[in-house]
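[step 3/7] fold_predict: job queued, chain A
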Amino acid sequence: MCLPGEPASALLPIFDPAFKADPHPFYAALRRLAGVSRMRLPSGTGVWIVLRYDHARKLLRDPRLSKVPQREDGAAPKHALFNHLLTMDPPSHAVARSVLAPCFSPRVLRAFEPRVSGLVDALLQRIPCDDEPFDVLTAFAGPLAQSVVCELVGVPDDVRESLARGLDDLDRADFDAPDRVPGITQHLFDTLLGVCNRRASLPPESLLATLCAARDHGSIPPEQVVSLTYLVLAAGRETAANLIANGLLRLLTRPPTWAELARAPQHAGALVEELLRLESPLEMATARYAIADIAIDDTTIRAGDTVFVGLAASNRDPLAFERPDELDLSRTAGSKHLAFGYGIHRCLGAILARIEARIALARLAAHFPSLELAVPAGQLAWKPGLITRGLQNLPVRRGAPGRKTFADLLPG
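[step 4/7] structure written:
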């Protein structure tokens, strides 16, 4: 992997396996050149990448950056499935978010926490007790994230696997077979529409029931029930699974050690905050489009330009975080990270993702206190792409006891 040269002509190597395995040296080198840099995507599209924490916070709440894709090139409108919070501006964004927000309130999610614990324990019981390798993503993190978000949404059991396949197919087709995207998109839309039409059988407290009620009261259009459900399912699956797997890899390859988490599960919450900062499951915030000129330092982002805010890069900005590449559980500024974004588009599911990761990692450590990688970390494959950062697989084995501890890093 080459480090960036002149920012105006640099390629953002989102398909380079070495870059996806560790993008931080690239971002650090780029950040030393400029906090906002002009880059080129593999498609040839020129975009602005924001790499400094203070710039990121400012731009994430700047109303001059729209979330509505600009269509001056005559491109066809996006499918209705993608007309959701990530492609809306106020006031429609505020209306849709206000409908969803009660489903993600601290009160609702605290009540849901025992169910998350039950799902975690059930998955752990299915993992064989021998020392044969198993893939954390397919045996644990992926199924957990899928089950949690489906239960919260109220997806009937008989369509969960079909929806999961459709979401996976759409992710792969974006990179491998773009000609298949329209068909997969329509299939997902039709499947979710069919679920919405089963209103009478939906759990009354579910997100789907809430959306259907908002539709019936005229708060949101009918097709938005489908698109908002799609957004929650897609984001809920990937963000939580990536957070658990990325964080686990960090713990298994660097101090502090995994065994100490088994002995001190009360520190899981602080640990998750540092893992969110260090191993952000969202590498970039989704695209924003300048609707007016914006001056940042000596740079001017012109109206019509596309902007991506680097969440992972901002979370390791040395101007915002002391020793930014180190895992430090006593870090008082750790919770100010941007792993879930900032401003009106901040991730609604942030509390839920934290709950899942905290319970999952603590229970996994208690169940397998000597867990270790089954292959060298350098052999692990990462998914390509711009927005998310996640492993394709994470093979581990139970391991043997006797590891060192990291008690010196734990707050007194």
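[step 5/7] annotate
The first strand starts at residue 36 and ends at 40.
The radius of gyration is 21 Å.
exit 0
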